[in-house]
Design a protein that fits this description.
Layout (H helix, E strand, L loop, with lengths): L12 H12 L6 E2 L10 E3 L4 E6 L19 H24 L3 E6 H6 L2 H13 L4 E4 L13
Parallel strand pairs: 3-4, 4-5
Antiparallel strand pairs: 1-2, 2-3
Helix pairs in contact: 1-4
Length: about 150
């Protein structure tokens, strides 16, 4: 018998929301975790050449978000870790753009503050506007205690 603890989903809740947003924005033929592309995007729409990433505000050190604070303990380690993550993100975006892909990052705080319809409208606006790179995040600066990330 398979124990429930041994069954782990292949996608996160944020990635599933990203897929819902992408479909609502009209993207079709979505591919999960396409390892043939730099950075293995969470979702890729090859026909439109769009790579979609779901970024957790903490792990990707979202500069606009109060969820992305550096922990007080072992601060030098975390600062190096977050800088390495940001540098990797920049390299991946540059590589995908060089290959003719458009890159959109959906931040965790954006998912927390907006409906799927609002996020899909924002995504569609970025794509229709010809954006090569875009980010969707919460524009409301709120205290950490009001956020659930």
């Amino acid at each position: 018998m398979l124990k429930k603890s041994h069954h782990t989903p292949k996608t996160t809740r944020g990635e599933r929301v990203l897929a819902e947003v992408a479909q609502a924005a009209g993207l079709r033929d979505l591919r999960w975790h396409d390892a043939t592309l730099a950075g293995t995007p969470d979702l890729a729409a090859p026909a439109e050449r769009v790579a979609l990433f779901f970024h957790g505000c903490f792990w990707h050190a979202h500069e606009h978000c109060s969820c992305a604070r550096v922990p007080r303990t072992n601060r030098p380690f975390w600062e190096r870790k977050f800088e390495a993550n940001r540098a990797r993100d920049r390299r991946v975006v540059a590589e995908l753009e060089r290959k003719g892909w458009r890159v959109i990052a959906l931040w965790e705080c954006g998912v927390l503050d907006h409906t799927v319809e609002e996020l899909a409208e924002e995504l569609r606006g970025l794509l229709d506007g010809g954006a090569v790179y875009g980010e969707i995040w919460s524009y409301e600066r709120r205290p950490r205690w009001q956020l659930s990330c």
